[in-house]
Specification:
The chain is mostly beta strands. Among the domains are: 70 residues, no CATH class; 178 residues, Maltoporin, Chain A (Beta Barrel). The strands form nine sheets. It has a 22-stranded antiparallel β-barrel. Strands 1-4-7-8-5-6 form a six-stranded mixed beta sheet. A four-stranded antiparallel beta sheet has the order 13-12-21-18. Strand 10 and strand 11 form a beta hairpin. Helix 12 packs antiparallel against helix 13. It starts with 22 loop residues before the first strand and ends with a strand. 46% of the residues are buried. InterPro entries: Beta-barrel_TonB, Beta-barrel_TonB_sf, Plug_dom, Plug_dom_sf, TonB-dep_rcpt-like. Keywords: Cell outer membrane, Membrane, Receptor, Signal, TonB box, Transmembrane, Transmembrane beta strand, Transport. Its main location: membrane. Belongs to the TonB-dependent receptor family.
Length: 1005
């Protein structure tokens, strides 16, 4: 091995353990990244000064995430990973979310591109260890950021990692250990600290674009400029700014509808057929619609195309109908357009000999838009009414049904035979095109900021720092999706009610004119389907201070300590839309929260060399939240240098998370719940559907396909009530690890981690009956009776070829309309596992250098204790759906002259389809189902293991110019079918985009 390939060592009783990127910090790497004095120079016993005598070089102390104490040896008792800016480029990551998706310790979390209708639309989350965004603390330069304005699901507050200035990132430090003793709440699973450049002169421009080989409309584009002036050492100041512009193109349904895994279309046989491509009327063409009624004798539905229809569909059991094409510019399912601008300013000024003033300003503007595609249709409701809760109507469920046309309605042109069935009353399906194809959809905006001003310096051997920070976010969701009851009444009312059947009837002469497309109609529709907004604000003001320095001189070395305080003022306010609060916006009650609180904290930490090989790190923090007793969070860590090549380390800490203002404040969530499964209705509907699908008559089969699983996942009204009696979550966290460097070019670490969380704050799990305090059902509907009648007609017809049972399936109850639940402290979670990291560096002589790395997280247990009666009811869920045992990355970087070539492989282990052992009764290899749906035969045993590879090449022809290309998903692996996914494609790590290409160019001035 050439001397150039060896890294320098410190001359002391302790040997530095060299580490590489995406591994626990090493002394050499951290010092290089932090821009402090060269460690290489520090390794020499001395250097010749001007007087020719040997002088000792002083080592600079550095700070690392998870500690308030500056130290020479930054290999701490806690495992810390560092990801440099170059590592991020080698991954092919363009956002902070993509970086975390490539870290084995991180788990998939909400991403902004798939966040529509989550309540926190347009934002992304971090999720370490799978404990959720609320258990992962995200910092910027060691200080907290404000929560995103809109909580996820209207209830989980989190930091939007998209608001962090990507262009200014110098590195990320990820502490995969609890850190409540240092940082307070939210740090149970770990800490992600994004660190920006400290000092910058000159200017640099970078542009990047990503394209897909499979989805033509996909594109991610970024441009950034960073510029600064002043040298902190020479000029006593430095000021720089960084601005990042990001855009992700929208993906319309026309570029996505046929790209899902094949099994999706098998399980949804009418999906493409229902798009009516080439058979229905085209967008913008008038479509007179379809009339229908129910036979009073049999209950069967009978329909006919309205006069003047040019697109009649025949062959359905109910009769002919008039059809239209589903517009393919729908972007809500496939991918929204996002534009994001982040600005970051940083300033440092030296005052006197030992004092520095500093300031930061961050501002992010996010704008997400999704076209809603097909215009709304007037479709008389014959099934369950739309149900939703709202703030001002309390426990009363709001409901809405599209009305019928009365016998004297001027637009009732149904045949006399059809009119006669229900006394002249008929239903109508009609396309409301007047508002225009781009009117419906959703938009989300968010403006967030953070300003920090502070000073730091030293008093003798002690270092001090204090700062005031103010941060906030203002989020607005604009939706043009749902009906406004007042506007709808203006267009189609006043309404009457048929006294015999209870059917709602529109005005005989409504203001809206069926049969024409006009601006007058458009104005009415814009009131009937208005754009309404939901606004949310968060604020966080913090004053902190700390002092750090030598406390005592022990026989083995210097004992250092840190002491500090933190005072915070937190507010969260979302008043809700007034119309929605009154129950006037269908399917949208929204959330209503108004909370404020002051919190106070004191902390202390010490690092003490107990012997020349054993070091103690102890920390204690006291946090006081209103309405709770003071929380004491301790942490203790030990590291032992067993031999120059071997370091042993371990930690024990206690963590906590205080209830958020959304969980324990005033207000609540008044909205809907998607995907509610009611086994009773699911089984009854599927029994009817499966018989109809056996018929030789095409109309029966189409009806059966439409009914199949239709009642297995429904949207119901949902109310989640806050709980001011909640207790804070508590956790016990431990790590035990070893760092081993058997050779100068090889470093290996292995850490066991353990988290035991109790008093978990949980929103109601409405899939479990014990979490539902109130449940209401709708009555059996006209559609229900029509389905039963269609089944009876089929079974009575020998031509159907179906051997029907003596007693035909039917309905015993209507669908669930609403559920109510409350936040509560529930049970405990125990998770543990192993992190393994191996890094090597080779010198190839004149062929450059090669770095190879392996990082893996191996989950051991994941158990949930519900209560003393159920115990660990669901068993160990490691190896079950979305909880694979193994996640790993392998990377190789070859540096040769002006080129850097990188290969990055991401691996996710396989898992069962069932979510836990109870779910496995229904979803297993024998049933060959997942989410109660069929899966391809080769995948009966579960979601397959998955890997993808990225290949990148960077070329630096000059010191100023950088050109790079990255091929993501090099082998063009296509996603597997995942029935648990809303879109049917596999999880985020198995991308639908196929092979994609990224091009980067950067220039320094």
């Amino acid at each position: 091995m050439s001397p150039a390939s060896r890294r320098p060592r410190r001359h002391s009783a302790h040997r530095s353990t060299p580490r590489f990127p995406v591994a626990p910090l090493s002394l050499a790497l951290a010092a290089a990244l932090l821009g402090h004095a060269s460690i290489a120079a520090a390794q020499e016993q001395g250097s010749d000064g001007a007087d020719g005598k040997s002088k000792t070089t002083e080592l600079s102390r550095v700070e690392v995430t998870g500690s308030n104490i500056r130290r020479l040896d930054v290999e701490t008792a806690s495992p810390v990973q560092v990801i440099s800016k170059q590592d991020i480029e080698n991954m092919g990551a363009r956002t902070l979310l993509q970086v975390l998706d490539n870290l084995p310790a991180a788990r998939p979390a909400q991403q902004d591109s798939r966040s529509l209708f989550t309540g926190s639309d347009g934002a992304s989350q971090a999720n370490l260890r799978g404990l959720g965004a609320q258990a992962t603390l995200v910092l910027l330069n060691g200080r907290r950021l404000s929560y995103y304005g809109a909580p996820a699901g209207f209830q989980t507050q989190f930091v939007n990692i998209d608001s962090i200035p990507a262009a200014a990132i110098e590195r990320m430090e990820v502490l995969t250990d609890g850190a409540s003793a240092v940082y307070g709440t939210d740090a149970m699973a770990g800490v992600i600290n994004v660190i920006t450049k400290r000092n910058y002169q000159g200017a640099e421009i970078t542009a990047t674009t990503d394209l897909s080989s499979r989805i033509d409309s996909y594109g991610e584009h970024q441009a950034s400029i960073t510029a600064g002036f002043g040298d902190l050492d020479r000029d006593r100041y430095n000021v720089y700014g960084s601005f990042n512009f990001y855009r992700r193109d929208a993906i319309p349904l026309s570029d996505f509808y046929d790209k899902r895994p094949n099994q999706y279309y098998i399980n949804n046989p009418n999906y493409i057929k229902n798009l009516r491509l080439g058979t229905g009327s085209k967008p913008g063409e008038f479509n007179p619609g379809t009339y229908f009624a129910f036979d009073p004798r049999t209950g069967a539905r009978v329909q006919e195309a309205a006069p003047g229809c040019n697109n009649v569909l025949t062959g359905e059991a109910a009769g002919p109908r008039c059809i239209w094409q589903t517009w393919m510019n729908n972007e809500i399912d496939a991918g929204a357009q996002t534009e994001r601008m982040t600005g970051y300013l940083n300033a440092h000024f030296l005052i006197g000999e030992s004092t520095e003033a500093f300031a930061e300003l961050t501002y992010t503007d996010i704008d997400l838009r999704a076209n809603g595609g097909t215009p709304r249709s007037f479709s008389t409701t014959t099934g369950n009414p739309t149900s939703w809760f709202s703030r001002d109507t309390g426990a009363n469920v709001n409901q809405f049904l599209y009305p019928f046309l009365g016998p004297n309605n001027e637009y009732n042109h149904a045949s006399p035979e059809l009119k006669a069935m229900m006394g002249g009353v008929v239903g109508l399906q009609y396309l409301l095109q007047d508002a225009g194809k781009n009117y419906f959809g959703q938009r989300n905006t968010d403006q967030s900021y953070r300003a920090v001003a502070g000073m730091r310096g030293n008093l003798g051997d002690w270092n001090w720092e204090t700062a005031f920070a103010t941060a906030g976010s203002h989020s607005i969701t604009y939706q043009t999706i749902n009906v406004n009851l007042d506007g709808f009444r203006k267009a189609f009312g006043p309404f009457t009610v048929d006294p015999g059947t209870g059917r709602v009837i529109i005005s005989d002469h409504p203001a809206y004119k069926f049969g024409e497309i006009s601006e007058a109609n458009a104005a009415l529709l814009r009131e009937a389907y208005p754009t309404f907004d939901i606004q949310s604000w968060t604020r966080l003001h913090t004053l902190d201070g700390k002092i750090e320095g030598p406390l005592a001189q022990l026989p083995a070395g210097e004992m250092r300590a840190a002491f500090g305080f933190n005072i915070s003022r937190e507010t969260f306010y979302t008043p809700g839309n007034e119309d929605a609060a009154r129950g006037l916006i269908t399917q949208q009650g929204g959330s209503w929260f108004d909370g404020k609180r002051n919190t106070y904290a004191l902390f202390a930490e010490t690092v003490a060399p107990l012997t020349d090989k054993l070091e103690l790190d102890a920390a204690l923090r006291v946090d006081k939240y209103p309405n709770f007793s003071a929380n004491v969070a301790p942490k203790i860590g030990l590291k032992y240098q067993a031999m120059p090549q071997l370091l042993l380390r371990g930690t024990y800490s206690e963590g906590f998370r205080a209830p958020s203002l959304a969980e324990a404040g005033t207000g609540g969530v008044f909205a809907q719940l998607g995907g509610f499964r009611d086994e009773l209705r699911c089984n009854e509907t599927n029994a009817i559907a499966n018989l109809l699908r056996q018929s030789r008559r095409a109309g029966d089969v189409d009806l059966g396909n439409s009914l199949l699983n239709a009642d297995c996942s429904r949207t119901v009204a949902r109310m989640t009530q806050p709980n001011q009696e909640l207790k804070p979550e508590k956790a016990k966290i431990a790590t035990l690890g070893v760092v081993f460097e058997p050779l100068d070019w090889l470093s290996v670490s292995a850490d066991y981690w353990f988290v035991y969380r109790r008093n978990e704050i949980a929103a109601p799990d409405f899939s479990k009956i014990q979490d539902i305090s109130e449940l209401r059902r709708s009555p059996i509907t006209d559609s229900d009776r029509a389905a039963v009648a269609a089944l009876a007609a089929m079974c009575a017809d020998p031509a159907s070829g179906v051997a029907c049972p003596g007693t035909l399936p039917g309905y015993s109850a209507g669908n669930v309309a609403s559920v109510v639940g409350q936040y509560k402290n529930r049970g405990r979670t125990l998770i543990d596992g192993f992190d393994i990291d191996a890094r090597s560096r080779f010198s190839l002589g004149e062929w450059g250098g090669l770095n190879i790395g392996l990082a893996a997280t191996i989950a051991n247990r994941n158990r949930s204790y519900l209560d003393d009666e159920s115990g660990w009811f669901y068993g160990d869920t490691v190896g079950y759906y979305n909880n694979p045992r193994l996640r790993a990355t392998i990377n190789a970087d070859w540096n040769y002259q002006k080129f850097t070539t990188s290969v990055f492989v991401n691996y996710v282990g396989g898992s069962k389809w069932a979510r836990e052992r109870v779910d496995e009764v229904d979803n297993n290899e024998q049933t060959c189902t997942a989410g109660y749906l069929p899966v391809p035969k080769p995948q009966c045993d579960g979601a397959p293991s998955w890997w993808t590879a990225n290949l990148s090449l960077n070329w630096r022809p000059t010191d100023k110019l950088n050109v790079g290309v990255t091929v993501k998903n090099l082998f063009d692996r296509l996603p597997f079918y995942d029935p648990n996914s809303f879109l049917g494609d596999s999880p985020d790590y198995a991308s639908i985009f196929g092979r994609s290409y990224s091009f980067t160019v950067g220039y320094k001035f």
